[in-house]
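hey so u asked for the seq, here:
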Amino acid sequence: MSTLRIDDPATGETIAELPADDAMSIAAKVRKARAAQAKWAGTPLERRIAAIERFRSMLLAEQESLALTLTREVGKPIRQSRNELAGVLARIDFFTSQLASAIGDETVHAEPGLCEQITHPPLGVIANVSAWNYPYFVGANVFVAALLTGNAVLYKPSEHATLTGLEIARLLHASGVDPDVFQPIVGAGDAGAALIAQDVDGVYFTGSHDTGARIAAAVGPRMIRMQLELGGKDPSYVRADADARVAAASLADGAMYNTGQSCCSVERIYVHEDLHDAFVAHFLETVNGFVLGDPRAEDTYIGAITRAQQLDTLDAQARDAIDRGATLRCGGSRLPGPGNWYPPTVFTEVNHEMALMVEESFGPIIGIQRVSSDDQAVALMNDTRYGLTAGVFTRDEAAARALLSRVSAGSVYWNCCDRVSPRLPWSGIGRSGIGLTLSRYGIQAFTRPKAWHLRNA
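ran it, structure tokens below
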């Protein structure tokens, strides 16, 4: 039997070695899920909601130990792990409060002798290949909504967040979800590929564009539901009338939170030339105050890079920027010693000939580019193959709305960034993926609307 080794990215030490699933064991789990799904779908709505509410209570009761597990295997600073666990509670509350109205039977037309209705039966068996950077946030967006709507879920956590995935499974089972209805899959990319190949009714993936493209090629011909939440190269523009200090503090956090390993991290900043120098000074002051260190320490803000190979990407982007004339303001190369460490890195005098400004970084590195007009900023913001989020900082709401209406992105921000709300859909454009989670649409995404034509003859 193959095994999966889990290392602490802060120290390089092995913290667990687990038996991994193979194609045979995954197929067996899918069969069990298929057999159990109909009974789960027939469970009264209030009982499914009650199970998820018990899961919520258990997350809250065990928050500290769950946060420590997440920090150890991902390298996320402990306070940010606690924040993730606290934040997922609101998403669960949204899903449970909106479920009945989102998937309830709808009568859309009625006349003597004829009634037209829409119902929302579940898809069936869902394959969920999830992400390591926010396993509670990203995972719950899929498996909570999928379970509430009556689906069975095969949950493949990232190999970098497997211990957290197993904790999620333990708590769901203890809350009353049939173990056959929610089953974790342990393994790396080969296990994910084996799961995607199974006879499932929907595939929901969060990860890189390249892997998403391979999944799309494999799943597309099967004509089943597919959602791909992929990468981003998220821009923000600081307009000439913005408050430089406020914008710098917000964008520094947006770029560096979770060590820059967020799908919606700010990855490139454009600043009007009238405000550029003041903004850069405030930005560097903020970034230089971020504490890099042991992720378990209470004052740590910058933790370890989860995936060791990402250090090569960050180093390559930094070298390319320097070779092409960028000015390095801080950081710029990986740190020596055990573990995966990269300091906050800021470049100015950057342009779109540099990989730093066009390719996803997924780390604590940022380029700040000077612009001369709103039109130039919008053109640069749209000069990308991605389209996840974009933001504008300005005192003028009308100007912000006008600019953001011209930007191609699934989510847009005025005077904020790096924010996700359960009430709003989360979706991307271009290489950022297809489909959506969150909002009432994100509940309905796990159902198959069925049209009823009812004639009383």
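Residues 78-103 form the longest helix (26 residues). The mean pLDDT is 97.
lmk if thats what u needed
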